[in-house]
Amino acid sequence: MDLGLTGKRALVLGASRGLGAAIARTLAEEGASVIAAARSPDKIQSWTRELQPGVASRIVVDCVDLADIDSIDQLANRTLADGELTILVNNSGGPPPGPAEGAAAALWTGQFAAMAASLFHLTNRVIPGMRARGWGRIVTIGSSGMEQPIPNLALSNGVRGAVRGWSKTLATELAPAGITVNVVLPGRIHTERVDQIDSATAERNGWTRDEAAAAARKSIPMGRYGTPQEFADAVAFMVSEPASYITGASIRVDGGLIQGL
Questions:
Q1: Which helix (DSSP H) or strand (DSSP E) does residue 172 occupy?
Q2: Helices 105-112 and 154-174: angle between axes, nearest 10 degrees
Q3: Contact (CB, 8 A) for 251 and 185
Q4: What's the whole-number mean pLDDT along residues 27-44?
Q5: pLDDT at 197 exceeding the cut of 90
């Protein structure tokens, strides 16, 4: 299937590693011009050196701190000054694990600013260009906790839930303009973030991390963790030409982990 991404211009956040890196690489392989942004641009440069020259040439490395509104605006200014943006992949880092009880107000507001309000602001910066073109794709990377809260990840469950509500609302507003807005929900995709969650589970239960990972895999019908490439392939489809009639959706990539209808 031709995804129709050749000539499209994409901005991928959180592209230094894990899901963001896999998405940025995959879009470039499909022919898109990609701005790969993160707080650590040196890490992006490191993985781009492993790519085929033709693919690497389609990736521009940039820097952004989603906890700093000025940094977000500077990224938007640079990106829009160089041309129209047709694809935005919102991908923020995850907050520290912990329970809802006792979480300080400052912790909640700080995480909301970095994980939600920053994405809302950046998206608003790029929407006018998409409207003018009559075509756009906005995909936000969520979490399975948006549908089934994950124990000991109260901040993530709460803040990402707000992001999902925003995305659904925005999808309705932008559909007449030819712009789709969707959320893609990773389950247990094997990244450093999942290793951190397994380590926290192990510490709580007096297990090794391998034991925690084995217990987690038992809860997944496919019996394994997903790969970043499997997740990136799903995102690539969601920003493609063939996905033009999918909007307001939350797409699970979780090996059957979420059991709810």
A1: helix 154-174
A2: 40
A3: yes
A4: 98
A5: no
**Please, which residues bridge with residue 253 across strands?**
186
Q: Helices 228-238 and 18-29 meet at what angle, rounded to 10?
A: 50
pLDDT at 260: 87
Task: Give residue-wise pLDDT tens across range 91-104.
Answer: 998 898 899 999 99
| Alpha carbon distance, N-terminus to C-terminus of the chain | 29
Which DSSP string corresponds to 192-230?
A: HHHHHHHHHHHHHHT--HHHHHHHHHHTSTTSS-B-HHH
Helices (H), 49-191: 53-56, 69-81, 105-112, 118-133, 154-174
Residue 185: other Cβ atoms inside 10 A: 24
* Amino acid at site 186: P
Average pLDDT over residues 222-228: 98
Percent of the chain with pLDDT over 70: 100
> Which pLDDT belongs to residue 121?
98
- Measure the CA–CA gap between 176 and 166, rounded to whole angstroms: 17
Per the CB < 8 A criterion, the answer to whether 146 and 166 are in contact is no
Three-state DSSP class for 104?
Answer: coil
Strand partners, 183: 140, 250
Whether the per-residue pLDDT at 71 is higher than 90: the answer is: yes
Helices then strands (H, E): number in the chain?
10, 7
Contact 191, 228 (CB under 8 A): yes
